[in-house]
Amino acid sequence: MLCKQHFYFYNGSYNVRIINGFSNNSSLPLVVWCVSGERGDIGGRALQERDDYGWTVTTTGLFWSSSRFVCTMKWDGKRKRFEAFQADRDRYRCGVLRQCFWLVKEDGFYFSNDGVQWIKDFPWM
User: Fold this and answer.
1) pLDDT (tens digit, 9 = 90+) per residue, 59-77?
2) What are 8-36's pLDDT values in tens digits?
3) In sequence order, what are the beta bridge partners of 20?
4) How many CB atoms lie within 10 A of CB 76?
5) Which of 26, 47, 56, 61 is the most buried (most CB within 10 A)?
């Protein structure tokens, strides 16, 4: 018997985007590499100031709560692994337009579902 809290029935697409929000790192890029259990390695990028890296997560039918995209970020000797998209957490948090934006800055990682209002989610360490 399946428990309701472990799956959801809904269709749609989510736009996930990671933005280099550093104020002065033109010579030192933010390196991003992401993987998914469902899609495998989706690749990475070296982002210069204000560059972004994005992809679409499409959900159809039963979408298990364990669906996620994990990214590793590297910058100036720092390294951080985090969930850029996680179904349980983000199905409401990304808003009605299903926008999941991450702005990476010197002091941490900020989330927004509209690209305007940013809330600090966690620090680098």
Assistant:
1) 765 544 457 899 999 998 8
2) 445 678 999 999 999 876 678 999 999 98
3) 104
4) 10
5) 47
Q: Are 5 and 87 in contact (CB under 8 A)?
A: no
SS3 27: coil
8 Å CB contact between 85 and 16? yes
- The CA distance from 34 to 1, in Å, is 33
> What is the rounded CA–CA span in Å between residue 125 and residue 119?
17
CA quadruple 6, 110, 81, 13: dihedral sign: positive
Which residues 6+ apart lie within 8 Å of 29 measured at CB? 20, 46, 47, 48, 51, 75
User: Which token pair is 44?
Assistant: 């990475």
